[in-house]
Amino acid sequence: MTEYVVLSAILFTIGCVGVLTRRNAIVVFMCVELMLNACNLALVAFARQHGNLDGQVAAFFVMVVAAAEVVIGLAIIMTIFRTRRSASVDDASLLKY
Amino acid sequence: MTEFVKPSVEYAELWPLFLVFGLACLGVVVEAFAPRAARYPAQVLLTLGGLLAALVGVVLVARDITVHAEGAARGIIAMGGTLAVDGPALFIWGLVLALALMGTLLFAERQLDGGVTAFAGQAAAVPGTDAETRALAANREHTEVYPLMLFSVFGMMIFASANDLLTMFVGLEVLSLPLYLLSGLARRRRLLSQEAALKYFLLGAFSSGFFLYGVAMVYGFAGSMQFAEINEAIRNSVGNRVLLVVGIGLLAVGLLFKVGAAPFQAWTPDVYQGAPTPVTAFMSAATKVAAFGAILRIFYVAFGADRWSWQPMLWIIAILSMFVGAALAITQTDMKRLLAYSSVAHTGFILTGVLGVQAAGDLAAGEVTSTQAVLFYLATYGFMTLAAFALVSLVRDAGGEVSTISRWAGLGKESPMVAGAFAFLLLAMAGIPLTSGFVGKLAVFSVALAAGAWPVVVAAVVASIVAAFLYVRVIKVMYFDEPVGDGPTVVYPSVLTATAIAVGVAATLVLGVLPGPLLDLAGVAGGFIR
């Protein structure tokens, strides 16, 4: 039981660090997905511990939401890439101060 | 394992919610089947009519809502325990719908930019290519923005009335996803707009990851997602407290990101500046209203029994937001960024109200509760911010909007009406008496004082003074600086934007002079139900 929660915490941290350090928007986005999947793992593990289905149902909802987020996210990253020929988050720096 | 129970759907109370969702779906169908020329009038009429009907519906539902089982609060728990339709939820529904109506008027404005709306002709066309030139020459415009806005309004309504963590997460995403797209659809300065959309999306998805991990942790603590049962678990102190405290912190990150509180405010100025101004106006006002509804509900209903573990955190964040917002606003040279930082400061003021005394029983007669004060502040903030951004969209030159502050010099002579209205709204934001901002600030400060949060109130008064300096500086530029040679002109808007501005300014004035009725309404709304 605890092992699964610890694993989910590790995955969440990896995703978090990835978002903060990676430069490619697609990779940043993949790290966000990793964070969401770490949440799913924790939800399912806690559902098993508490013996109810709430957490498992939540995991399904999270998958649907993540799929919708992919649609929106890739559309935005695509338009940026086609305009700038680059998906680096460092290049997108017109808006500052 | 428990057996699945079919939830009952309380159509009589929830129909405004379903109406907004149905309209959004209908808008998609119109987009698919109506000829191009018919889409703009069809979408605008559909959106305006539907939002108005939903607003009337909310008033009717609020009139007839039953008294909840125990205590003075009114409302029902609907949809098998996932939604709470109570006084604060209905107040926020009404406010979001009113702001969305004004937002629709701004979205539909065509006179400012030579007969087309502020949205891209063809968002998929790469800027500077033949495809874009053709789309511009044909006066195309994206009418998908209306259904997108309705989906977002639907999400805001769910967000403010969610009674369990999963529904709240779904509401958060349904309100955010359309806004990410809307931010990227500007007709002019498309690179800035796309960049705003990218930043908003990546940071928004990042913060919803935190929110979701918080959901998982709190679920691990309580064994349920329902707010009432989480509260029960805290009272009985069953479960692992580490999970609870970590969970509260992570949930707070997700929610405070949405309202743009420091230190999670980094996206606010970039997105507010890059997004099309009508979208900025709608999103700055309505998102904050809905998200504060969710913050109040989750902290009061689910974590109300554990307030000593979250109050110190909110103290710090409130103080930080006020000072970061006010201090960074002073350094800005762009009007939209200045208003964005000012909204960060306002977030701090509203959080001050969240720290106040919650229960009506602990107060002397005539004193306001914190829910009442926060709801009132949200109403004043929503109307003045929306009108202020609408006014920014009127100041233009050949290249589109001019939001550089130094080029607003001499606007008082160029257009006394616009400069006067803008100056009035700035004074309201500063909290000068006889404006709604003053009454709102007074209400949140007094509830925070009653709860003993005097350090926050002292900080808030100091931050108000700092903020007042910056608003007065803008007024000085408009009235006392000599106009620069190539100064912008004020384009006279059609009746749509004019109505939105007039309503915003009138609300700011009326709520400042006669705050009683709305304060009473927020009081009648009562507390949250479990």
From TrEMBL, chain B:
This is NADH-quinone oxidoreductase subunit N. It is a multi-pass membrane protein. The lineage of its organism: Bacteria, Bacillati, Actinomycetota, Actinomycetes, Propionibacteriales. GO terms for cellular component: endomembrane system; plasma membrane. NCBIfam families: NDH_I_N (TIGR01770), PRK05777.1-4 (NF004441). Belongs to the complex I subunit 2 family. The chain crosses the membrane at residues 14-33, 45-62, 90-108, 145-162, 198-222, 242-267, 279-300, 312-331, 338-361, 373-395, 416-436, 442-470, 490-514. HAMAP family: NDH1_NuoN_1 (MF_00445). The gene is nuoN. One of its GO terms (biological process) is ATP synthesis coupled electron transport. It comes from uncultured Nocardioides sp. NDH-1 shuttles electrons from NADH, via FMN and iron-sulfur (Fe-S) centers, to quinones in the respiratory chain. The immediate electron acceptor for the enzyme in this species is believed to be a menaquinone. Couples the redox reaction to proton translocation (for every two electrons transferred, four hydrogen ions are translocated across the cytoplasmic membrane), and thus conserves the redox energy in a proton gradient. Keywords: Cell membrane, Membrane, NAD, Oxidoreductase, Quinone, Translocase, Transmembrane, Transmembrane helix, Transport, Ubiquinone. It is found in: Cell membrane; Endomembrane system; Membrane. NDH-1 is composed of 14 different subunits. Subunits NuoA, H, J, K, L, M, N constitute the membrane sector of the complex. Its EC number is 7.1.1.-. Residues 162-465 form the NADH:quinone oxidoreductase/Mrp antiporter transmembrane domain. One of its GO terms (molecular function) is NADH dehydrogenase (ubiquinone) activity. It catalyses: a quinone + NADH + 5 H(+)(in) = a quinol + NAD(+) + 4 H(+)(out). Pfam families: Proton_antipo_M (PF00361).
